[in-house]
TrEMBL record:
Protein name from the UniProt record: Heme chaperone HemW
Function: Probably acts as a heme chaperone, transferring heme to an unknown acceptor. Binds one molecule of heme per monomer, possibly covalently. Binds 1 [4Fe-4S] cluster. The cluster is coordinated with 3 cysteines and an exchangeable S-adenosyl-L-methionine.
Residue ranges of domain Radical SAM core in the record: 24-270
Main location: cytoplasm
Top-rank lineage group of the source organism: Bacteria
């Protein structure tokens, strides 16, 4: 969750949505994202809306405390119930992200999930995920989560090499994420993800291969691999600007991606989104697929974004301001926008092209269809899906996905 918020029109104090937002809602899945904005330390590359204890000291008082944070999120879940009214949909996915959600007590995460279950109900096959820092969980913590209804966990591994973790300001030790996978399996988690980052300054091809080897050896059923993006305003950006560490170029990123595809495929993982691989359809992250397919989700927490029926809104950023709004009986929404049909068409192309299933060609305008034909000729789109009316990226197309999508959206 990037820290910068867009502009937008005001959100009503009661959070009410335009009447059209729930039209046809029964046909769309509903998910919840719960943002936990706390971190023990700030990673040098991170631009998310997160806060350390030092950063919060004196800025939010008791309202910004981790100790009562779960109560505040429960208040927003109850607000969501009021705003969505008699919406009959059980929640299909829940994703707890951050920040470091596992800085909260495991019982707090279970209690927030319980509020969603009480207010909305959970689908029988609901996917319930939390992100976790490897150093902030142990077998007992994971067992509490599993007993409380969580069935998927995502560990931030990033790298198996100490010098790479040091550049990223990650505090866990090499080997700990792999041990966490075993602990999660022992606790009964069927679905486990490891997050990796490639392209860190000072990382070599051998370092990256070692990280993939370690991740695969741990036995997750899902791996996410992201190119490092150096965001302005971060500590890492300042270090690069001062010449302390080098910037990795796009060609290196492309080479690392090809290494990931080769090694993950050989180990039985299939890509289903440009940066995500799973061993089966059941291992795919359904919550992220809600985002990529434009479904409905409510984001609770400071800076969290939501989308229901073409209405997108976002909460105030600071934990103290967020808690203060809810304590006063007001929506914590900072702004919102109403998406036009054209906005939603463009977003479908932007997001669905990244998926293995691709995007229907009939979503494209004339210029976009011409661009799709050029991409096919250039080997960026696969021929068989194209002949069946879909634009699906080839491996080369995945390397150039951003450029392809820019052409397709006219």
């Amino acid at each position: 969750m990037p820290s910068a918020l867009p502009d937008g029109e005001p959100v009503p104090d009661d959070g009410a949505l335009p009447a059209h937002a729930l039209t046809g809602a029964a046909e769309r899945p509903l998910g919840f994202y719960l943002h936990v904005p706390y971190c023990a330390t700030r990673c040098g590359y991170c631009d998310f809306n997160t806060y350390t204890a030092t950063e919060l000291r004196g800025t939010g008082g008791v309202l910004a405390s981790r100790d009562n944070y779960a109560d505040t999120v429960v208040d927003e879940i109850r607000l969501a119930r009021k705003v969505l009214g008699d919406d009959p949909r059980p929640v299909r996915t829940v994703f707890v992200g951050g920040g470091t959600p596992t800085l909260l007590a495991a019982d707090d995460l279970v209690r927030m999930l319980g509020a969603i279950r009480d207010e909305f109900g959970l689908a029988d096959d609901a996917e319930v995920t939390t992100e976790a820092n490897p150093e902030s969980v142990d077998p007992a913590y994971l067992a509490t989560l599993r007993a409380g209804g969580f069935n998927r966990v995502s560990f931030g591994m990033q790298s198996a090499r100490q010098h790479v973790l040091r550049i990223l300001d990650r505090t866990h030790t090499p080997g700990r994420p792999e041990a966490c996978v075993a602990e999660a399996r022992a606790a009964g988690f069927e679905h486990v993800n490891l997050d990796l980052i490639y392209g860190t300054p000072g990382e070599s091809d051998d370092d990256w291969r070692a990280s993939l080897d370690a991740a695969l050896g741990a036995g997750p059923d899902h791996v996410s691999a992201y190119a490092l993006i150096v965001e302005e305003g971060t500590q890492l950006a300042r270090r690069i600007r001062r010449g302390e560490v080098p910037m990795t170029d796009d060609d290196v990123h492309a080479d690392r991606y090809l290494i990931a595809e080769e090694m993950l495929s050989a180990a039985g993982f299939d890509w289903y989104e440009v940066s995500n691989w799973a061993t089966s359809d059941a291992g795919r992250c359904l919550h992220n697929e809600l985002y990529w397919r434009g479904a409905d989700w409510w984001g609770a927490g400071p800076g969290a974004h939501s989308h229901v029926g073409g209405v997108r809104w976002w909460n105030v950023k600071h934990p103290g301001a967020y808690a203060g709004a809810l304590a006063a009986g007001r929506s914590p929404g900072a702004g919102r926008e109403l998406l036009s049909e054209e906005d939603r068409r463009v977003e479908r192309i932007l997001l669905e092209l990244r998926l293995r299933e691709g995007v229907p060609l009939d979503l494209l305008r004339e210029a976009g269809r011409a661009a799709a034909h050029r991409a096919l000729t250039d080997g960026l789109l696969a021929k068989e899906p194209y002949d069946e009316g879909r634009a699906v990226l080839t491996l080369r197309g995945r390397l150039l996905a951003d450029a392809v999508v820019r052409d397709l959206v006219d």
